[in-house]
Specification:
With about 325 residues, the chain is an all-alpha fold. It contains 13 helices and 2 strands, in the order ααααααααααββααα. The chain has a two-stranded antiparallel ribbon with strand order 1-2. The longest helix is centred in the middle third of the chain and has 29 residues. The structure holds Phenylacetyl coenzyme A (FAQ). Phenylacetyl coenzyme A binds next to helix 2, helix 6 and helix 9.
């Protein structure tokens, strides 16, 4: 009934003005929209786009950190990293399930990722050459993810909002373990301090890019805010992230790689906030369009994992078929 492709959403709903007004009234009244509720095709399409991009980000996001599991410097660090990477895999699965409630199949979404058609977060196209990158990802990437995802717990689409609650709890643990790792390095040898600073230098700007283009260039924000899918604009969330993270860097003796960073008392309606330098939007769009340092490698690795896992999917299907046949014969 609600089946459609990622790019061509359509519903059985006749989208009259009355229907659209009634739908908006439900949104304005903070009612949750559930999978079997009638909804405008564009609302469905926006959610499929956003939830599937998010799911892909979690799954591809396992790769930069997974790279360090065998080389973690102690058993304690290895256990924490292993658990974190597993958590990200779990997030991807909840999110694919949430997308499936909108009438799109996991196979279709996977095909779109592997063919390079689907987007995933730009941040995961940067390399992780040192152990400090693992700290920087936890602290900054999970920190940015939390800033973006806590408001998504109040998203108007029920399955996405509910998935976000557990995801945010886990991301919060990840952020703390990443920050603790960075703090430990900054209290170590000169080489360890330098490694932490170098990781911050490389991850700071890409972390700011995670929030998406500036509000003037964001195509989807206005409508998504109206539908209460998004609760804050990209720039609002980016500002909150900067304001929360700069003092954390200062506390552990690290310096943000931004000569324009300065406290501005009049920002945020007089509460104060940081002014910061201009993001390199050319770099952002280059990475989003598939030309970042690791884009090709990430997709090739995911494709290999999908191909290598074919026998597991076939075996699970054969088992399910046999079980059903036995039940039917009984
Ligand atoms: N990278 O009009 P807007 C994580 C695209 S999860 C790539 O502003 P929107 C956990 C955007 O899709 C991180 N593409 O779009 C973790 C659109 O293109 P389209 C992922 C980007 O949707 C931690 C175009 O630009 N989180 O990190 C990016 O209103 C550690 C115009 O943009 C989510 O997905 C980007 N950074 O706002 C895992 C959260 N930014 O689709 C492992 C949910 C924008 O028209 C380790 N998503 N684009 O072809 C969102 O909140 C929103 O979708 C935004 C973008 C804020 C990402």
């Amino acid at each position: 009934m609600y089946s459609q492709g990622l790019l061509g959403a359509n519903t059985d709903t006749d989208e009259t003005e009355d229907f659209l007004a009634a739908f908006q009234a439900r949104i304005d009244a903070e009612e949750k929209i559930e999978p079997n509720d009638p909804m405008p095709a564009a609302y469905r399409k926006t959610l499929i786009r956003m939830i599937s991009q998010h799911a892909h980000s979690e799954i591809v996001g396992m790769l930069p950190e997974g790279n360090w599991i065998t080389r973690a410097p102690s058993l304690r660090r290895k256990v924490a990293l292993l658990a974190k990477v597993q958590d990200e895999g779990g997030h991807g699965l909840y999110l694919y399930s949430a997308a499936e409630t909108l009438g799109v199949s996991r196979e279709q979404l996977t095909e779109e990722l592997l063919s390079g058609k689907a987007k995933y977060s730009s941040i995961f196209n940067y390399p992780t050459p040192t152990w400090a990158d693992i700290g920087a990802i936890g602290w900054l990437v999970d920190g940015a993810a939390i800033m973006n995802q806590v408001p998504l717990c109040r998203c108007s689409y029920g399955p996405y909002a509910r998935a976000m609650i557990r995801v945010c709890k886990e991301e919060s643990f990840h952020q703390r373990q990443g920050y603790e790792l960075m703090r430990k390095l900054t209290r170590g040898t000169d080489e360890q301090k330098a490694m932490a600073q170098d990781a911050l230098n490389r991850w700071w700007w890409p972390s700011l890019m995670m929030f998406g283009p500036s509000d003037t260039d964001s195509q989807h924000s206005d409508q998504s805010m109206k539908w209460k899918i998004k609760r804050f604009t990209n720039d609002e969330l980016r500002q909150k992230f900067v304001d929360a993270t700069v003092p954390q860097a200062e506390l552990i003796g690290l310096t943000m790689p931004d000569e324009h960073l300065s406290w501005n008392e009049s920002k945020n309606n007089g509460e104060g906030g940081y002014d910061f330098g201009e993001i390199d939007w050319d770099e952002f769009w280059r990475v989003v369009k598939g030309h970042g340092m690791m884009n090709k490698d990430r997709i090739a690795t995911r494709k290999k994992a999908w191909d290598d896992g074919a026998w597991v999917r076939e075996a699970a299907l054969a088992h399910a078929r046999k079980t059903r046949e036995r039940k039917e014969a009984a």
